[in-house]
Amino acid sequence: MANALSSVGFADTKRHYPILDGLRGVAALIVVAFHLFEAHAASRFGQIINHGYLAVDFFFLLSGFVIGYAYDDRWNTMSTTEFFKRRLIRLHPMIVVAMIIGALMFYFQASPIFPRIHETPVWLLLVVMVIGMTLIPVAPSLDIRGWSEMHPLDGPAWSLFYEYVGNILYALFVRKFSKLLLSLCVCAAGAALVHYCVTGPTGDVIGGWSLEPGQIRVGLTRLLYPFFAGLLLSRVVRVGHVRHAFLLCSVIITVALALPRFGGEHDLWMNGLYESLCIIVVFPLVVYLGASGDVKSGLSARMCAFLGDISYPIYIIHYPFVYTYTAWVQDNKVPVAQGWPVAAATLALCMLLAWLCLRFYDVPVRQWLTAKTMKKTGHAGGYGQGAGAGT
């Protein structure tokens, strides 16, 4: 997902924010590490990198910011259909390959913690894979893993499903909202987020990956505030000039996602309040600071470009490896002290595979689809990316 803003198809007129690319990569790597260490956690109260899941909410905010920045002033020359084509070309090639990877690794994850793998025939696995390639959530009867995931071959694909929901809402309705109306939506969505975090049953925003009504509520709650807030931020903010912004923002994001859980089982509101503050205050501040900085050349520029390049591929392909690692840890009762070298090797493997997918699959396929679509529509401009987990 390199050069997120210069690749949206309007590079000749739009400023590029390379630091936002780099920050997306930092958050994506933290997500992978969080998921690997999660295999060792007995409960949500003892997870290492405890708030790593908040990276998804950060991605949603980045997505709203970049989509607003890239497309708000283009609707006089771009149809809704063309917008959807751009988003499909940007997001969907990696979704397809992620489902293939998930299917190839599925039977290697056999473990008591995945109770339905042994009873799943190959034909049913292939059906779930094909449905997953469309990103349409599967019915509970097709839950071939037993974890109640809407995409049992690649759990994090749930967030891409909501990414599409956000894109559809933007294209059909929200792009037409005035700043005042959008501000009211941000306030309402923020209030719903705080209410759920502080008074909800878990004291956190973990969830969204299932078609159960309660999980759908969590998914929409996690999407709407950050996506709307990012969009509003792109419309009202005037970026400043912040030195060392990439380092500063990377530290803030890392600390915010890695802090231990606040409170205990009887003080859930404390952690809910912390997560509300992160999503409502800290993440918009980080996006502002990142947009206000710049990297001209040298190590920082190369690091931002590399992290931005692999951020979406590694996010969407890493979880089949996490399933496998989790099965190994749980079956063999592997402690963190013994398992971390394997976890580190898994992270390195995911980074390598993400780069290979980007270099030899994702970029060529998107270029081919873009060229083919341009011939039919006669429109110039690439079908590029935004700055969310999958945008």
End-to-end distance? 8 Å
Given the C-alpha coordinates, what overall shape results? globular
Low-pLDDT residue intervals, each spanning 5 or more residues: 1-12, 380-390
Counted up, domains total: 1
Give me the number of helical elements: 12
Give the percentage of residues in beta strands: under 5%
Largest sheet: none
Give a brief outline of the structure.
This protein has 391 residues and is mainly α. It has helices at residues 18-38, 55-71, 80-105, 122-134, 157-172, 179-199, 213-236, 245-258, 268-292, 298-317, 319-332, 336-377.
Topology:
Blueprint: H1 18-38, H2 55-71, H3 80-105, H4 122-134, H5 157-172, H6 179-199, H7 213-236, H8 245-258, H9 268-292, H10 298-317, H11 319-332, H12 336-377
Helix pairs in contact: 1-2, 1-8, 1-10, 1-11, 1-12, 2-5, 2-7, 2-9, 3-4, 3-5, 3-10, 3-11, 3-12, 5-7, 6-7, 6-9, 7-9, 8-9, 10-12, 11-12
Written description of the protein model:
The chain is an all-alpha fold and 391 residues long. The protein has one domain (18-377). It has twelve helices and no strands. The chain has helices spanning 18-38, 55-71, 80-105, 122-134, 157-172, 179-199, 213-236, 245-258, 268-292, 298-317, 319-332, 336-377. Helix 2 (55-71) runs parallel beside helix 9. The longest helix is centred in the last third of the chain and has 42 residues, at 336-377. The chain is globular. The N and C termini lie close together (8 Å). Mean pLDDT is 92; it is low at 1-12 and 380-390.
